[in-house]
Amino acid sequence: MEPHPMTADDLALRHFGHDDLPEIRQTLIDVHADVHAANMGDEFRQKFPWFVDHWGGNPGFSCVIAYDGNEPAGFAYGAPAKPGAETWRDYLDPAPHRSRTFSFSELMVREKWRKTGLSGRLVRELMDNRDDDLAVLLVDVTHPKVQALYESWGFHKVGERQPFADSPLYAVMLAELPLPQTKGAR
Questions:
Q1: Tell me, what is one Gene Ontology molecular-function annotation carried by this entry (predicted)?
Q2: pLDDT (mean) for 43-57
Q3: What is the pairing mode between strands 134-140 and 170-176?
Q4: What is the spatial distance between Cα 74 and Cα 27, in angstroms, rounded to a whole number?
Q5: In contact, 138 and 108? CB cutoff 8 Å
């Protein structure tokens, strides 16, 4: 009999917040380094610890890490956007009536756990209990499959932005919360 293929449901998900950053900071950095091992020479990729500290420094920081036993398989995190400074505001006029926004900053899944449904499970776990009205994220425009995946979860592109001189050009994607129930984001 063949072994049961691993699915995202086989992994344990743990929630963390702002006060947990000292405990999880290195885990996030290590998973990022593993996921981007081929391009860690890129100056922008090397700034990831700064982004962890930036987002984790927000009192509303929320993070979900998936574990296979004690081994981190992936994570998703973000924090509430500062009212009036949300990245979608440059593209939507008038602004949505309900506009409290969660900035979904990172989603990373290590190679061994890709194509198991883990990305959707992490997104769902991070977003399902939020009381924000909207979620916004940035996706590198050179990754159309990633953009399509987010679209399958209810996000839609509202514009493009390059937030830093050395960063990629990103699609600004927005979704109303709660996300629609879809097969791909269980």
A1: acyltransferase activity, transferring groups other than amino-acyl groups
A2: 91
A3: antiparallel
A4: 10
A5: no
Mean pLDDT of 111-133: 95
Between helix 21-35 and helix 48-56 the angle, nearest 10°, is 150
Rounded distance, CA 6 to CA 112, Å?
A: 10
Question: Yes or no: is domain 8-179 CATH 3.40.630.30?
Answer: yes
Q: Provide the β-strand partners of residue 76.
A: 64, 107
Structure tokens at 17: 């917040």
Q: Which of 126, 141, 135, 169 is nearest to 155 (CA)?
A: 135
Q: What pLDDT shows up at residue 185?
A: 44
Better-predicted residue by pLDDT, 130 or 8: 130
Amino acid in the structure at residue 10:
D
Tell me the β-bridge partners of 79.
Answer: 103
**Would you state the structure tokens that stand for residue 30, as one six-digit string?**
């290590």
